[in-house]
Each structure stands twice: as C-alpha cells, then as structure tokens.
Amino acid sequence: MVPNIAAAVIKLGQQKKNDELKEILERIPTKELVDLVSSNIGGADGFTLWHFVLLGMTHSSKTSDKRFQITMAVLQQLNRVELATKVAFDIVSRLVLDLPKFGPDQLVEILEYCVESIRAGDPKSMGWKDLLPDVLSLLSQQVGRISVNGFIMTGVEYRKKVLDELFKMKIQNGILTSFTGMFREVQLSREEATLLVGKVCDAIRHLEALEIPALTFQLFHVCLKYSSLLVLPIYSLQKYFHKHYYKRIASNDCGDSTDFDSIEPVSDKELREAEETILYHLSNVTEFRLDEAQVVAMFKPFQNMPEFLLTPFVISALIAMSKINRTPDTMKVVSSHVMAFLVR
C-alpha cells in the first residue's frame, strides 16, 4: 500500500485519474479508509480528501457500504470536534451533493443522526441544519416502503413521524435559531408551519433580549410560507417587550417603584436595541412579500382587541411593514392602508 494514502488519493483526484482513484479506494480496507478520512476531516487537507473519496466512490459499484460507513464516521466526528463554521458547512454541503446516491436505509440512518444531534443540542455541532432538509425530501419521495427501526412505512409517513418528533422535542436555546432557519428549506403544510411557529414563539419568553433578533429573522422567513402566521411571533414579542420593558416604563411614569417583579437584569439599552433590530428584520423580510392590504387583512380580526393592537410593539410592527416607513419622503400618511387602519 502507498505509504501516504491520503496524499495518493488527493493526487489521483487532482489529476482526474478516476479509474485509478476508484481502484485504490476499492483496495483500501474499509476500517483503514474510515479511520483515515474521519481522523483527517478537520485537517488542512481534510475537505480535499473527503471530496475525492466521495468522487472516487461515485464511479464504483463496489463501495456503496464503504462510502456509507465513511459518511457516518465523518458525521460523528463533526459532533466530536469543533470546526470553523465554513469548514463544517463545506463538508456537509459536499455530502449533500451525493445524497441521491445513498439507499433508503442509509438515508434513514443519516436522518436519525440529524434528529439525535438536534436532541443533543450542541451549538458547536450543527451540520444537521444543512443536511436534514435534503435527506427528509429524498425520503419523502421514496417509492414503496422503507424500514425504520423495525417498522415498515412509506417515506411520507416517515417524514410525518420525524416532523412530529422535532415539533415535540425540547430544543436547546443555543441551537434554536439554526433549528428555525433550517425549516426555511423544508416544505411545510400550513398545519406543520403553525406547529413550528407556535413552538418557537413559546420559547421566546425564555430568551435573553439580544438572542431574539437573529431568531426572529429566521422565524419571519418561515412565517411567510403562510403570511398570516406572522401574527403569532408579533403577539409573542408584544408580550415579551411589555413584560420586560413597557410595563416597567409605565410603572415608573406613574411613580410606582414597588413593583419588584418587573425588575429585570436586562438593561433598557439592550431591550431597545433588540426591539429596533427585530423591527428592522420585520420590515426587510416582508418588504417584497407583503403589501399593505395584506398586512391590514392579517390584523383586521384583532380590530376590536385594543389591548393587543394598540400596544407599542404591535403599532411599531405595523408601521415597520408600511410604505410610510420604507419611503417616508414620497408616501403620504393618508394614502397608507396601515395608517388608516390604525386610526380607525
């Protein structure tokens, strides 16, 4: 065997000697190749080796099981070592290109890996977010039935099982933003999207103020799958800022300094910064997706609920989605559907 196998594989790949690359990969014992690729995945040539191993096995019908074992070893290694975000992304993205070549049983194991990684909740190991949408899609398109942990079901049934499990799972705060953003790439029914958005909205109350803007950026995008869902995060955010900020401001204005329950460790500056960033995201995400008539239609059912509608955050959110916010120099207040709705 060549003394430096990794260098030999990379050299053959770079020289585009696909037949020789295929032959050397077929000859190397499975365990040796698994150890070689997984142990080097975080090194300087780790991605290059990974790429050419996958490429060489594409041309071989004899290495399907070997390729799968290497893949699972690499994925497990990603959960053990801390890599730069771009490095981990490149490794997973390269695998995604080859996913259609994996059999359904192998795809099931890869998806189970994703689910268990989400359950573990390690913010340093989030390759699953770029992997799960494609694996889930491929399995849901499978013709016939597949075996999942001893149970036989269709791909569509398995997809539902996985989503149900994810929607019921406790998601650690450290991965919640990535978890939410992942679903931008997953086709969801209205019912599924509602469950997801409700789950994430419920978690908002447990977050620090400066954790919320990045989460809401992803959440607003998910909501636009069915735009009426935007009401849910706006309602949750209204409750959050009322509890942590506006309630205290109102109490101070009334000269009441005895409400110790309203004293929070978060500074007013952080709360204002978080709110401003959230409103900025809301404006940008909806700018080319919702017009003012749609915004008004979304909030019209709450017209007789001033305790919700006429609150500082909700008013600010409505204005953020209005033309007068985006083009203040050219838009007249009287021609704004949103402003007309607010003053009724």
TrEMBL record:
- Annotated GO biological process: DNA repair
Query: In what residue span(s) does the FANCI solenoid domain sit?
Result: 65-286
Molecular function GO labels:
DNA polymerase binding
Tell me the PANTHER family matching this sequence: BC025462 PROTEIN (PTHR21818), FANCONI ANEMIA GROUP I PROTEIN (PTHR21818:SF0)
What is the designated name of this protein? Fanconi anemia group I protein homolog
Q: What is the lineage of its organism?
A: Eukaryota, Metazoa, Ecdysozoa, Arthropoda, Hexapoda
